[in-house]
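for the writeup, i need someone to sanity check this before i put it in the appendix. the sequnce is what the collaborator sent (i think, or maybe the updated version? ugh). structure was predicted straight from it, no edits. if anything looks off just tell me and ill rerun, i have time this weekend
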Amino acid sequence: MSNYTLIHDISNWQGYLSKYWQLFKDKGCKAIIIKATEGLAYYNYWKETAPIVKEQGFLLGSYHYYRQHIQNAEGQWVTCNQKKQAENYYNWIVKCGVKPNLPPALDVEPGNNPYGISSDGVESCLNYIEQLFGRTPMIYSNPSTLKSIAKDSWKKYPLWLAHYVDEKNIIIPKPWDKWTIWQFSDKITYTPPNSTAKKPIDHNWFNGSVEDLYRFCELGEQEVEKYIKTKPNMPADFLRFRNRPLLYSGDTLAVGRNVKMKVVGGKVKTDIEYWEVELDGYRGFVSANKDYTEVI
């Protein structure tokens, strides 16, 4: 996956993540997309978490969960006004005062839309979001939903595709011919040091390098070039001692600073470069990325 860049998306379901930010960095995550609003409702989770994400050095993204219908005060299901949804999304982002880097995103899925999803309704919401934010929004959905509602004119919206399959089995629905972001799992878990907790975090690939991601965020070419030259260092507080040279290998151990490991093999390149090392009589693998290993 050397041509892709890791992104996580989170919502209030993930809760408190202070013990997880370094784990995200350790795995190579560069951006985090947070749920901000749904229908005509907004989430304090965005207000509380968005500034922390930026302080931690991640690129920041947001998304709005589209509602075709909502219940009124009498409990009746009524159409949820698309313009008001877009205004709710935009106004909450502005009110909270933290500007996202990634384009806005519209989450379109059947979960909270039991009475179906209208193509015209989604398109109207996308149009309003684009007008308010001044940026072309992404559309998040799965192949089956998009197959039933997508229009040819939607090709201009970058596709954030949710499809939990191997890369060779990805189905890209028309009118798109590629995905911009691919959510490939919602089951991969993180476990903080000295803990048995396993918290599942949505995993996504951005279709491009870190530099491509910066350009997608419209940071400006000078900022992109500055990043390429400086390659900001995010030193780890610990390294993962893995039983296999893979980011997602199980049975890993967190190794803190100043712990000495003997390199017993050359560099091994799978998803990233690793050294084969020996620690307390055990053999395993740690990242050979100089941004991490030079500070251990």
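The two ends are 26 Å apart (CA to CA). Residues 238-293 form one domain.
thx in advance!!
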